[in-house]
């Protein structure tokens, strides 16, 4: 076993554990922290794949910005902390079976996967390749994504303001 394989296994287990914890925890802030562990471990996997730019973006955007936005969303919205009733054993077995079926299908889907020759040189100047592709071929989708994110931010502010006005009218 090489060190890279062991690092991949550790990072993959942390990512899976973070995802499972996020689903099973009851406190929303704890869920966000588990999600951060998942994001950081995925950034580590990107580093193992020689995709340093994607690792940096993963840490800056997902582990940083998205997590902060989620925490602000939690703080700005009203939510009830009522717990859901525990699911039955049959439902849990059905979910476990679905997860196992998904894992088996993914395994067989990538078991004999072969990449064309083009994929062998992607790690050479990958940041430059991403920049050229992003700002030459995909300028319009990039800008549209920026506009959509801005509209979502404005919508979140409007919804938060409506809750404040409703609370003031109730008093």
UniProtKB/TrEMBL annotation:
<feature type="transmembrane region" description="Helical">
    <location>
        <begin position="89"/>
        <end position="110"/>
    </location>
</feature>
<protein>
    <recommendedName>
        <fullName>NADH-quinone oxidoreductase subunit J</fullName>
        <ecNumber>7.1.1.-</ecNumber>
    </recommendedName>
</protein>
<comment type="similarity">
    <text>Belongs to the complex I subunit 6 family.</text>
</comment>
<keyword id="KW-0520">NAD</keyword>
<dbReference type="GO" id="GO:0016491">
    <property type="term" value="F:oxidoreductase activity"/>
</dbReference>
<keyword id="KW-0874">Quinone</keyword>
<comment type="function">
    <text>NDH-1 shuttles electrons from NADH, via FMN and iron-sulfur (Fe-S) centers, to quinones in the respiratory chain. Couples the redox reaction to proton translocation (for every two electrons transferred, four hydrogen ions are translocated across the cytoplasmic membrane), and thus conserves the redox energy in a proton gradient.</text>
</comment>
<dbReference type="GO" id="GO:0048038">
    <property type="term" value="F:quinone binding"/>
</dbReference>
<dbReference type="GO" id="GO:0005886">
    <property type="term" value="C:plasma membrane"/>
</dbReference>
<feature type="transmembrane region" description="Helical">
    <location>
        <begin position="32"/>
        <end position="49"/>
    </location>
</feature>
<keyword id="KW-0812">Transmembrane</keyword>
<keyword id="KW-1133">Transmembrane helix</keyword>
<dbReference type="Pfam" id="PF00499">
    <property type="entry name" value="Oxidored_q3"/>
</dbReference>
<keyword id="KW-0472">Membrane</keyword>
<dbReference type="InterPro" id="IPR042106">
    <property type="entry name" value="Nuo/plastoQ_OxRdtase_6_NuoJ"/>
</dbReference>
<keyword id="KW-1003">Cell membrane</keyword>
<dbReference type="GO" id="GO:0008137">
    <property type="term" value="F:NADH dehydrogenase (ubiquinone) activity"/>
</dbReference>
<keyword id="KW-0560">Oxidoreductase</keyword>
<dbReference type="InterPro" id="IPR001457">
    <property type="entry name" value="NADH_UbQ/plastoQ_OxRdtase_su6"/>
</dbReference>
<feature type="transmembrane region" description="Helical">
    <location>
        <begin position="6"/>
        <end position="25"/>
    </location>
</feature>
<feature type="transmembrane region" description="Helical">
    <location>
        <begin position="138"/>
        <end position="160"/>
    </location>
</feature>
<feature type="transmembrane region" description="Helical">
    <location>
        <begin position="55"/>
        <end position="77"/>
    </location>
</feature>
